[in-house]
Amino acid sequence: MATILIADDAAFMRMKSVALVKEMGHEVIEAADGVEAVSMYESHHPDAVLMDITMPNKDGMEALKDIIAFDPAARVAMVTAMGQQQIVIAAIKSGAKDFVVKPFNAERIQAVLLKLID
Amino acid sequence: MTDAVSDRWAELVGLGTRNAMSGLSEMTGVTIDVAELALRRAPLSEISHAFGGAETEAVGIYLTVTGSADGQLMLMYEPRIAYAFIDLLMGEAPGSTDSLTEMGRSALGEMGNVIGAFFLSAIANVTGLTLLPSPPEVMTDMAGALFDVISAEVLLDRDETFIAETTFRAQGHDISGVFMVLPTDELLQALVTASESVSLGAR
Q1: Does B148 touch chain A (CB under 8 A)?
Q2: Cβ–Cβ contact B117 with A under 8 A
Q3: Which among B83, B168, B73, B150 is positioned nearest to B113, based on CA atoms?
Q4: ipTM of the complex
Q5: What is the pLDDT of residues B14-33, one digit of tens each?
Q6: Extended beta strands in B88-151, E state
Q7: How far is A111 from chain B (nearest CA, A)?
Q8: Cα gap B125→A6, rounded to integer Å
Q9: Which has the closest alpha carbon to A32: A48, A20, A17, A47?
Q10: Helix axes B102-127, A11-23, angle to 10 degrees
Q11: CATH for B3-196, options being 3.40.50.720, 3.30.70.360, 3.40.1550.10, 3.40.190.10
């Protein structure tokens, strides 16, 4: 069992993601914006992070940079509806290990977590 | 606006809208068709007519666009339609939702996020521009008041704007709505200029 940090400002998406990841047998911690995500990462050291990009206070890309600065080995996948090539490239360059385009299904999340945790 | 610019803008909006409805279909698990796509210049006083009049009660999902240029997106529904979408998104039986709870509001916001992002991604990938949606804001008010929100910025120095207005329908469900795109002049020009060198017809 791994600990997964789910960062998304939308309570609806957190509810769906948390249910999926718990069904896969993992422990979940949650953050509702980028500031909270960085803080949760630093205090809980999760095994992997699923992070939305469009969030208030600090967006997912900024939070990703802060997490990678804190822990260069952090395993973060960006989860977003924005399939824009430039954004995908920017996320990977900033240290994201994978990119999940919303709306996603259980199989996709499972595949990403397997990749991140392995 | 010349006919050529207008045609190019229409092509981009058509491309983005089809992609947005595909995102909505994926999210809800229901096939969503574009019933009507109207592109026009409209004075502020007429915008709310798109939604049955200024005093019609409505639920709006509003996103701003930033990046290469600015703009605004708004989805508007009658409340009963918004509730039907919430039922679909939450996996509830039709008719279960009859008011806007915090979780329902979040579900609608996420739906706006997916639609806005799919719309912008389709256009961004063709033009090479970066177009970023803001976190969605879900609002309930009279249609006129909602239109005041979205038109405040683009109409600061003029009395009309260029709007793209899409009516869509979900197959097998009594669901339809209006998706409006309000570009600033800057965004309109940036999109048209960036797309001049590419062919959209085959996409």
Answers
A1: no
A2: yes
A3: B73
A4: 0.83
A5: 888 888 888 888 888 888 88
A6: 131-133, 137-142
A7: 19
A8: 28
A9: A17
A10: 90
A11: 3.40.1550.10
